[in-house]
Amino acid sequence: MAGTGTIKIYNVGDGKDFISNLPDEILHHILSLLPAKDAVGTSILARRWKSLWIDLSAFNFDRPTNQLFHLVHRLLKRSSRTAIRLRIAMDGSGVTVDRAKFQCFLYAAELDKVQELNISLDLKSNPFILPITFSSASLNSLCLELKCVLYIPSWGFSGLKTLMISLVTFANDNSLRRPLSECIFLRKLVLHGCDWKNIEEISVVMPTLRELSITFSRFHAHYLVNSKVKIDAENLLSFSCRGCLTFEFVLVNLTSIVNAYIDFKSGFPSNYLYTAAHEIKLLSGLHRVESLSLTIDTLEVCIIYHLLLPLILCSLVFKLHFSSASQE
């Protein structure tokens, strides 16, 4: 009965091991949801499980030690798969990343087998140079969350379709320009919470791009004062932008855009008019969007100055949404 605290145990299947009788494809999917050490640990359960992990298509190293870089290299070399999803996350683990071991891993990693790569590390804001040998023609998706000053002397991922860069301080213009100009097949681009103090201009010119999301941290917004963010993407379908608006947006050829989400907060509370001017220019460049979502914060500056964006309200926007809270 409810509230008695009694736990009943039912014997289903007369104690038979039904899981081991599942097809390999289903077992591989189950194991791919586990941290890598747990997935490999299942090899001791029974003979049926001994080599299952070798054929996994996804490995998740969550909060590992610095020894993992050598282990990942061995694992990739041994795996029979050629389309692996690999995630390495040490951020928040309390482990200080050994930059030398990480550098060696990137030099030696057998990335030709990896289709999706997600690396999340805290390098304690130290400068880090992406190795020239860190490249792959087969990689489709790359996610880099590196708390460091990042140098990108070359870019060997021209075949990428998805690129996500978070919490990075770009060392110079080239460190941003290279990945944005050499990913000629890119369809999705996410720039989240990056530090722009070494960047004079952000230019996203990509005819293949379908989805673009940019989040500007309020802690770094002042670095972009009087700067320009140019977006030229004639086939862009979805656009999302969040943060403090302290710069000018230049939108070019956004004729195919379907959905847009804008969440801006003033970077200069004492100068709302400065922010409002940039905000109106951005929104006027989105006048052909089919569905536009704006937060109340986005409209607050314009409302104060009685600028209720008649251009937007009377334009070709088919659906206009307002929300009181930011989307996560």
TrEMBL record:
Transmembrane segments: none annotated. Pfam families: F-box. Residues 16-52 form the F-box domain. InterPro entries: F-box-like_dom_sf, F-box_AtFBL13-like, F-box_dom, FBL13/AtMIF1-like, LRR_dom_sf. This is Putative F-box domain, leucine-rich repeat domain, L domain-containing protein. It comes from Medicago truncatula (Barrel medic).
